[in-house]
Amino acid sequence: MRWGGVLRTPVGASAAALLAAILLLALVAPVLWGDRADAVDTRAILRGPSAEHWMGTDNLGRDIFFRVLVATRMSVVLALLATGIGVATGLLLGTAPLVLGAPVGRLVTAAVNIAVAFPGLLLALFFAVIFGVGRTGALLAIGFAIAPGFARLTHTLVARVAGLDFIAAARLAGVGRGRLIVRHVLPNVGEPLIVNATIAAGGALLAFAGLSFLGLGVQPPAYDWGRLLGDGLGGIYVHPAAALAPGVAVVVAGLAFNLFGEALAKGIGLPTAWGPVPRGPRSGATREGGTSMSPRARASGASAGDPVLAVDGLQVSFPGGVRPVRGVGFTVGRGEAVGIVGESGSGKSLTALAIGQLIEEPGQVRADRLEFLGENLLTRPTPARRRLLGTSLAMVFQDPTTSMNPSQRVGRQLAEVAEVHQGMSRRQALARAVDRLRTVRIPAAGRRARQFPHEFSGGMRQRATIGMGLMGSPALIIADEPTTALDVTVQRQVLRLLAGIRAADQVAILLISHDIAVVGQVCDRVLVMYAGRIVEDLPAAELRTHARHPYTRALLAAVPDMTTDRNQPLAAIPGRPADPARLPEGCAFAPRCPLADELCTRSDPQLVADDHGRRVACWHADAWADRPAPVVVRIGDPR
Amino acid sequence: MTGATADAGTFRGLGDSAWPRFALRRLGRLLVSVWVLVTAAFLMIHLIPGDPVRAALGVAAPPALVEARREALGLNAPLWLQYGRYLRDLVTGDLGSSTITGLPVSQVISDRLPATLELAVGAFVLAVAVSVPLGLGMAVLTRGGRRRRGELAFTSSSVVLAAVPEFLVAVGLVYVFSVALGWAPVAGRSGPGSYLLPVVALAIGPAAALARIVRVETLAVLQADYIRTARAKRLPNRLVYLRHALPNALTATITIGGLLLSGLVAGTVLVENVFAWPGLGSTIVQSILAKDYPVVQAVVLVYGLGVLLVNLAVDVALALLDPRSTIRES
After folding, report:
1. Closest residue, chain B, to A455 (C-alpha)
2. How far apart are alpha carbons A49 and A36 in whole angstroms?
């Protein structure tokens, strides 16, 4: 049971214990010590703390310690009553739209919205004027001051529940409105209301102390903590305990209610007013985009000379022994376009981030070799290296809606690169930013530079992030699924743009994609990753003819083309991608592989190069040597 | 908030029309709120059960005196006429006069308001100046589950500080700094030193709550893709945090911060009473106790207007910092 679980957390348990103690004290204190608290002793007036009177005495010689204890009942009962009034009124107001129908309901909601804007204390003072000074007046005042907040909460909760199917069903079945609320709506919004009522009770306790302290609440001879505090404050110079003791009592009791409420909220997974704003997980791209781009975009390979990027034995690990990237090695030559393909979870994005030095703690990157333009990236970073990476390595990420700063103008976001790394003035940098936006074919670049990212379309935003990478003079663009979040037509524009930049300036491109068709069209060379390793490395032109790894062939087979029989279900790779936390002993693909045999499950194949420089990691790489892909490995279940 | 214009969600063509529309909407909401406030302040006297004049003058007062006072306050006219006169007087700046001292209420307000504003503005500035760097710093230090102990210490102490009401903080401060250490005067508004304790007492709670929100929001923002983009641009950490993380964390912070700040406006009432501060807060309490309704009415109006203005400022700041919120609303 979730409510029981709250008591097992340290905070929940101690708050509950404290709360129980206070409630118990409220119950027994007046019975046990009521007489001693009221005993007038004119011989000991306004005494300081002593063995006889722990917290001293007041102006009639009454013992303050016992008065504080006895006042617990008054303070707690009043706080609970006020909370009750507030919650009940809030419930009435909050369900009013549902009960009374749209026009009246909207009026109530509008009134609540205005009232909520005012702080509770101000509302309480307002109502205190109307209901008059005294206990009853303060009770109603605080109750009504709490009500708007609860009305808002109830309204939100009810609106959420009212949209659900079972309410609609109950309505259709002719259940009346009152019955609907009592039987169907309230039980479903009860938990958050109880949690917030607990927190509100703490607030009411503090508010009551405040009103009594001001002289607007409990009137003598009755007393609560606030009254005692107000009486004690005047003598704080000579006799501080008289003010401090009731103050401490108020704080402890208020905290007990508050913390217990917070612990409840945490325990049953509810957001409270100050809790973190819940954010959904980053949406993974699932859409399969199939462009049929002409092979023109495929520029011929030019990987002569020193490589732009050299990686060997690259590993990324996380605490708990998970290694999503396990020993990746490859090189990218000047102006070469290399693609990395694989399903989600194959480690391709982490590989890109590791190369870009963007893996954050607790992630760990290790490698035998990681060089960019001859600079070893494995040593401690220096300002010079930061400048080199900032100007020569560009990165483009998957989702252009989230990868630009929403609160900064697009031009500024580009310009700051040149300001930081190239020492340009603000004006020069902005001029370059506009020029770069023009290069990535943003129309009316000067005007667009002054706009915010949300005023751009998705494709324009992605082109602008590419432009951001062009602020320096990049030697390599790492593009991690740059087109996955875009429309098919826009996809093509972005890929053309990348190909154009590459052709114009000999910029190398590392394109990460789950779409083998896209990679095949844009890149010179394709690296296929599975379970954190490269399983095949071959020229893109030979994908259809020389792919040897069963996984590569399965990926190819899963791409529909013009000849695909549309009456058949689309081909899919059976089974699930390997879990990096639980990798088998042998080949990681073996559980899904049609060719797997006993050797595959026992021993992990190494990545071996053949005479033509193609690399593959498969015991059965030669089984399909003569048969051209695609071969439909197995037909998946129709979805 | 009704989301009347469905086409507002499209990307283009908004840049020019969004701002006037936002201004119009917001102004409309402000006017409605002000009208509700003014009407509530007017009705307040009429909602008091029984005869407020009789209650104010006491049971022993002769009926003729009560009648004369009722006549003087205009309470014998029909309600709509009273309402009309009230609005007319309000527009001309005539708030009536105190039934106790006979002073014009507008003079009472102008005498007392500056002292309250000094407190509120001082506390606001202090709270923001402390909470934003603190929250940001804690977020950077504890991001990705780093320094668990520091995180626990920060969260628990900020929870406690935020939950303790300002008048109790004030009493504690008075005890420590005035009584025990003798560093600051215990009450009154005399010199620069006398501002210290009231301002700190008012600021501590909101500062703790705000710092907590800034940290939570910054932590969420540090996970965002555009922070990764900023790192990919190899910006120095200083710029990543101050230029890219902070403004985006503030947009969410300001919304909740605004609530705290309007609460701060009301908190002056209690703190002023602790420190015998000659502001509106001590005035309203004395007036409520003395049933001096014209003064109460006016002070409620001033406080209410203060809250509405804070809310307006928050909305404008939000619109400036996060242009999307403007569009979402209009």
Report:
1. B11
2. 16
If pLDDT is split at 50, 70 and 90, which confidence band does A570 have? low
* Interchain CB contact of A390 with B (< 8 Å): yes
Compare CB distances from B228 to A133, A233, A397 and report the shortest one's residue.
A397
Q: Do the beta carbons of residue A580 and residue A321 sit within 8 Å?
A: no
Question: What single string gives the DSSP state of each residue in A405-439?
Answer: -TTS-HHHHHHHHHHHHH---HHHHHHHHHHHHHH
Residues in CB range of B109: below 8 A, 6 or more apart = B95, B280, B298, B299, B302
Cβ under 8 Å to B: A residues 47-106: none
Which of B80, B62, B82 shows the shortest CA–CA distance to B72?
Answer: B82
| Contact by Cβ (8 Å): A415, B243 | no
* Interface contact flag, A455 B14, Cβ < 8 Å: yes
Say what the ipTM of the complex is. Answer: 0.82
| A627 contact partners, CB below 8 Å, separation of at least 6 | none
User: CA A372 to CA A395: how far, in whole Å?
Assistant: 14
Task: For residue A349, give both structure tokens.
Answer: 């994005």
Tokens 């909050």: give the residue: A94
| Per-residue confidence band for A412, with pLDDT thresholds at 50, 70 and 90 | very high
Q: Where are the alpha helices (DSSP H) in chain B?
A: 14-47, 52-57, 63-73, 79-91, 105-142, 148-163, 166-173, 192-222, 225-232, 237-239, 246-274, 280-290, 293-321, 323-329
Task: Match 């190909």 to its residue by tokens.
Answer: A499
Position A564 scores a pLDDT of: 64
- Of the pLDDT bands very low, low, confident and very high (cuts 50, 70, 90), residue A2 is low
Which residues have C-beta within 8 Å of that of residue B244, sequence separation ≥ 6?
A405, A408, B226, B227, B230, B235
Report which secondary-structure segment, H or E, holds A325.
Answer: strand A322-333
Beta-bridge partner residues of A333 = A307
A95 contacts A167 by C-beta, under 8 angstroms: no
Pairing of strands A525-530, A364-366: unpaired
Nearest to B175 among A240, A273, A402 (CB): A240
Residue A581: exposure state from Cβ atoms within 10 A (0-12, 13-18, ≥19): exposed
Report the C-alpha gap between A475 and B95 in whole angstroms: 73
What are the beta bridge partners of residue A341?
A: A513, A528
pTM above 0.80, yes or no: no
Q: Are A487 and A458 in contact (CB under 8 A)?
A: yes
Q: Which pair of tokens denotes residue B270?
A: 């209690």
Cβ contact (<8 Å) for B267 and A262? no
Residue A441 confidence (pLDDT) above 80: yes
pLDDT tens column, A111-134: 888 888 788 888 888 888 888 888
Residues in B touching A111 (Cβ below 8 Å): 36
Mutate which of B124, B151, B152, B226 to disrupt the A interface (most A C-beta within 10 Å)? B226
> Closest approach of chain B CAs to the CA of A336, in angstroms?
21
pLDDT digits (tens, 9 = 90+) for B111-134: 999 999 888 889 988 998 999 999
B-chain CB neighbours of A389 within 8 Å are 234
Among the ranges given (A18-27, A250-259, A580-589), the one the predictor scored with the smallest mean pLDDT: A580-589
pLDDT reading at A511 higher than 50: yes
The neighbour count for residue B67, using CB atoms within 10 Å, is 12
Q: Is the pLDDT of residue B327 over 60?
A: no
Helix or strand run (H / E) with residue A209: helix A186-214
pLDDT at residue number A298: 30
Output the CA torsion sign for B205, B206, B209, B215.
negative
CB pairs under 8 A between A and B: 210
Structure tokens at A450: 């002054």
- Top pLDDT among B258 and B203 is at B203
